């Protein structure tokens, strides 16, 4: 795996002020490798950075949605919202 491409993707977001932990990066690499195994991707070196970037975007989006839901629940604005997240 070419770690430099992964590092470039992460560093680009970090420069924009988005915190991404080392554990998150490691988990997403593991997750992407599992997806590539299931889909039997042969050109993993080329495909991993593309998949990683997409899965990182999805992960950050889910974190935002979950965080917003928790804040709404604390304010009492969204009693039933958590059931749909």
Task: Give a verbal description of the structure.
This protein is mostly helical and 85 residues long. It has one domain. Helix content is 74%, strand content 0%. The radius of gyration is 16 Å and the shape is globular.
Which features would summarize this protein structure in a list?
3 helices; mainly alpha; 0% strand; 85 residues
Helix content range: over 70%
Class from secondary-structure proportions? mainly alpha
Uncertain regions spanning at least 5 consecutive residues: none
Number of strands: 0
Number of distinct helices: 3
Percent in strands: under 5%
What would you call the shape? globular
Sequence of secondary-structure elements:
HHH
Query: Can you give the mean pLDDT?
Result: 88
Give Rg in angstroms.
16 Å
CA-to-CA gap between the ends? Answer: 33 Å
Number of domain units? 1
Q: What does the main sheet amount to?
A: none
Please give a quick description of this structure.
By secondary structure, this protein is mainly α. It has helices at 3-15, 22-39, 44-75. It has three helices and no strands.
Write the layout of secondary structure elements.
Elements: H1 3-15, H2 22-39, H3 44-75
Helix pairs in contact: 2-3
């Amino acid at each position: 795996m070419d770690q430099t491409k992964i590092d470039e993707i992460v560093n680009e977001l970090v420069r924009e002020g988005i915190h991404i932990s080392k554990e998150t990066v490691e988990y997403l690499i593991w997750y992407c490798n599992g997806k590539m195994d299931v889909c039997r991707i042969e050109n993993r070196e080329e495909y991993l950075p593309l998949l990683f970037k997409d899965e990182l975007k999805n992960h950050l989006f889910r974190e935002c949605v979950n965080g917003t839901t928790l804040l709404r629940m604390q304010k009492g604005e969204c009693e039933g919202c958590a059931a749909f997240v």
